[in-house]
Design goal:
Layout (H helix, E strand, L loop, with lengths): L9 E4 L5 E8 L2 E5 L5 E5 L3 E2 L4 H14 L25
Antiparallel strand pairs: 1-2, 1-5, 2-3, 3-4
């Protein structure tokens, strides 16, 4: 059975893989602080202990080679407007 995180532990959010710090543990609900400063509640099954130092290092190297995603790509909700070409002399 996995160990329940304690206050001050740094754990990974399973969905995003981001590191969070445990602020408060109340039963199965855990209050976490993310690296951007926001606090959110998670359930214990949504968190996992960080991997070994070697796997963390390998993940860091993989992220460096993959590069950062482009910020200016169109999202799913962005409407793409078609390009309208006009013939010379047309109104």
């Amino acid at each position: 059975m996995p160990q329940t995180p304690q206050r001050g532990d740094i754990v990974l959010e399973r969905l995003t893989g981001k590191r969070v710090i445990v602020i408060k543990v109340a039963g199965d609900e855990i209050m976490c602080r993310f690296d951007d400063g926001r606090k959110e509640e998670r359930f214990a099954f949504e968190l996992e202990s960080p991997a070994s130092v070697l796997s963390t290092f390998l993940q860091l190297l993989a992220n460096l080679f993959r590069g950062r995603p482009r910020e200016d790509t169109a999202g799913m909700n962005d409407r793409v407007r078609p390009l309208v070409l006009r013939q010379p002399g047309a109104l």
